[in-house]
Fold this sequence. Notes:
Elements: H1 17-26, H2 33-45, H3 53-56, H4 69-88, H5 94-121, H6 126-145, H7 159-185, H8 190-216, H9 230-249, H10 260-288, H11 295-316, H12 326-334, H13 336-369, H14 374-377, H15 381-396, H16 407-423, H17 429-453, H18 471-507, H19 513-532, H20 540-545, H21 550-565
Helix pairs in contact: 4-5, 4-6, 4-10, 5-7, 5-9, 6-7, 7-8, 8-9, 9-12, 10-11, 10-13, 11-13, 11-21, 12-18, 13-15, 13-17, 13-18, 16-17, 18-19, 19-21
Amino acid sequence: xxxxxxxxxxxxSPLKHVEHSEKEEQTPLGGSDQSLNKTNxxxxxxxxxxxxxxxxxxxxxxxxxxATTSELFYDLxxxxxxxxxxxxxxINDHKSLSAYxxxxxxxxxxxxxVSLYDVRFSTDSIFERACKALHFGTMVGFAVMGPQWKPGxxxxxxxxxxxxxxxxxxxxxxxxxQYGSTLYFTRNYRSARLPLxxxxxxxxxxxxxxxxxxxxxxxxDDYTTSNVYIAWYIISIAETLLTTAVSCxxxxxxxxxxxxxxxxxxxxxxxxxxGIIVVCKAISKIVKNYYIFTASVVGxxxxxxxxxxxxxxxxxxxxxxxxxxxxxxxxxxxxxxPLHITLVxxxxxxxxxxxxxxxxxxxxxxxxxxxxxxSATYDTSDEFISQVNSTAWNDVFDYVPKGIDFTDAVNDVNxxxxxxxxxWNDTSEEAINAGVNALNDIIFALANTVLESLxxxxxxxxxxxxxxxxxxxxxxxxxxxxxxxxxxxxxTAGLTLIIMGxxxxxxxxxxxxxxxxRSSANFVVGLGLCLxxxxxxxxxxxxxxxxxxxxPTLCLSLFLVVVVNHIRFGKAxxx
Length: 575
């Protein structure tokens, strides 16, 4: 699609032999050697590309050597959804993390189902373009659902969830119709009937289930929680496994000769591009606050860029664009789901650590300028108040970007300073405690403003019985966010390396010494990165997470694996 010349047919056959038959009618009996050689070349390069398909009961399908423009256009809808959703959902607790993974699961498998059809049977016709338009509409449905994606939370309105389930139902019904058109054109081939009917059956059942789920969501005005959405994940994975199993069992609709490898590698490239966008947004947050880039922050940015570059090299340097076995290729394709979700989370973690490094430096500047040793530094309360005001405005309030309301923080600081002035010369235990609490209020207000100005926020605490959560609770939640990101960052970084090693291992044949060493390096370094997350169980996590070594640690680990991937191991390496 996109390279069509001449009028479009209403519906076009996915079979190759139709074109061949037309050419045979137009070619004289004593055709040139050049045309014969072209036919022979096509037969060698593409599977089942022969003119006697009826004799062997094997249909010869069109095979595109590269992705069509319509497929690439469809990918743009995928990345637009991913970018929008990533910017909307702040991963700051376990619920938001699971919600992010869940949304990505449904989005990725919907994209994957359409791509499985496109790489095998898609043609350019009015019918196919209409179907593609409906798939675009499905992606728009994801964009509508994204801002309201809060599964597992209490709500009294499940209309959006019900509508989304209907959108998923329609997307699968469109696939049923598309596979049905393929079945129509291959109806004379017995070998193709059963697998196509099985695939159509699986999507029909999935569509029915998606539609039925609309009735399963709660009704009424009462606030309730519902776990019905989990069925979306189960159905998506089940239908993909069934479609994959059918194409492994019946090779007539396998992916041999298709550009499936290119489709998935392009999506990997798009996800890495999404990571670049996220990192650039993190840098823009720092710029908006008028912070001067220190050596530490610049080092984080350099490490972030190198991490994305090394991930790119680790994936594409060992990518094989040739067919390497029907079943292996199917496993290779399916493993891209965990790879892509780990990649997305790693890159999200990279952007967080860039911003957090600047936040830590901002907090260190505030605490450094705000001397907390009263007896040694301040003779009068006026000196202390002057120093606090100077620090608050020069280090914090003057640099808050537009659009962020910090009036509450200013009021908290002023109220605390009044309390300090009232208790300055009072040596009673009650006055000392009041002064200490006022000082804590000042530090919390300034620190919270620094973090909010960089879009670092803890999960919203609910007000119970009219009582706001204490500073201790809010601080604990904020450190919980740090801990959560620290854990999933290193776990997903390690899993990304391990999965990339498995993908390369599946595609390499025959296995050589270098392949064993390279895959072992992926596994060992990947496992080591996963184990770093265990630091969250010790006090060492705080020192490491707030240091400037988090991103450089991952950067150096990936660089080590890149180096191993390019070392030659004797004559048998072949790389």
